[in-house]
Here is the input.
Amino acid sequence: MAIYLQVRAGPVHVLLDALAVHEVLSLDKLNSGAGDHCEWRNTVLKALNLAAFLGFDASKPDMGVVFGSDQVALPVMLQVDEVIRLRDLSPADWSPLPHVPMATRQYFDAIYLDADGVTQVYRLIKGLHFGTQAGSQAAVPEASHPMNP
Here is the structure.
């Protein structure tokens, strides 16, 4: 069993490893810096709009998730539209990714089908380093994205 935090970024529901979540907070309480940075606990973090990072049109996100599993590197502030809930999932709960574009496959390794039988919740790959990925934000074409059949 492992615990994940389910968030929504644009139209996509994403599961983040809860052990890598440092804090969840409202973005209206943060001091935004120049460019894509913010101040968190007297530390400057890279701020990343997760919907835009995944190639979607991004509205102004309401919530921030300080996320990072690397003990050496600083975490990143993931800006998301909604924080939904914690989920306790076992390995049997996961399904393989359906056929998705390679631009999407590089970020996710499995999906969880929500109890409604419709919502696909994508599991973010463990160890994904947004600092190195963000410089090459290849947009996923909307028509070929798994959430837009």
Remarks:
- The radius of gyration is 15 Å.
- Residues 50-53 form the longest helix (4 residues).
- Residues 52 and 58 are 5 Å apart (CA to CA).
